[in-house]
Amino acid sequence: MNNSYFTFNGGRIYKHNTGNILNNFYGVQYQSSVTFLFNEAATSVKGFKTLNYSGDRSRAYNEAKDLVTTEGWYADSIQTDLQSGFVPYFVKKENKWFNYIRGTENGIDTSSLAVQGLGFPDTASNLAPGGARFIFSELNYSLGRGDKLYYLVNGSTTEIGTVKNSPKITYFNGDPIVNVDIETLLSALPTTSDFLFFAKDTGPNLTSLTGYYAEVTMKNDSTTSVPQELFSVATEIFQSSK
């Protein structure tokens, strides 16, 4: 009407394209977003390592990385058929914005290389307060502090707790034994007939995402009337398997 755009919502009339705030509809603030696929060499499993783009400024954080100080572009979601991740902000290099992809923790995936078997404990005992100790005659020495311990209960995976420190080797009657101390909230511990396994925390340690393809959602949280352009987006990949 007279070159103005009007809509109705909840019995009220709204006029669009007024003021200097973008992406605000009916009092709700949204972000600009675009979603696309990377699918080079579609029949091969690939590792998606980095993300870079040409365009306007990136979102920025304070030194502690817990507060947004500058609005801009970021990768809200990077989803492959196997893993997921994100890029919270980008760093400007040679007139492009660049950063490594960070993985996110989506529960335990027993097919992942980050999940390894531990074995049947020789003994299991409670340690007060909120702790437990497992003793093994043999141990997978990939186990380390911060790893999460699991076992199966009626076919379901149950988390036991988090490893408090690196496994300690002691001797009993001349034979080496390994003590594994954990923090746990379980009142009933697994028994010597339960098979234990552990998982590394892949989220912060994940340096690439594996999959046939990657679906990426780029977002921009700027609300000003100044256009925020995104010219191109690229990723660094390597072949994981054919």
Features:
single chain, 242 residues, mainly beta, Jelly Rolls, Thrombin, subunit H, 2 domains, eight-stranded antiparallel sheet, five-stranded antiparallel sheet, 1 helix, 2% helix
Structure description:
With 242 residues, this protein is an all-beta fold. It folds into 2 domains: 12-105 and 206-241, Jelly Rolls; 115-200, Beta Barrel (Thrombin, subunit H), CATH 2.40.10. It has 1 helix and 24 strands. Strands 14, 15, 16, 17, 18, 19, 20 and 21 form an 8-stranded antiparallel sheet that branches. A 5-stranded antiparallel sheet has the order 5-23-9-10-13. Strand 7 and strand 8 form a beta hairpin. It is elongated. The termini are far apart.
List the helices and strands and how they pair.
Layout: E1 6-9, E2 12-15, E3 24-25, E4 28-29, E5 32-38, E6 45-55, E7 60-61, E8 68-70, E9 73-80, E10 84-87, E11 91-93, E12 96-100, E13 102-103, E14 115-119, E15 123-127, E16 131-136, E17 148-153, E18 156-163, E19 168-172, E20 175-183, E21 196-199, H1 202-205, E22 209-211, E23 214-220, E24 230-241
Antiparallel strand pairs: 1-2, 3-4, 5-23, 6-12, 6-22, 6-24, 7-8, 9-10, 9-23, 10-13, 11-12, 14-21, 15-16, 16-20, 17-18, 17-21, 18-20, 19-20
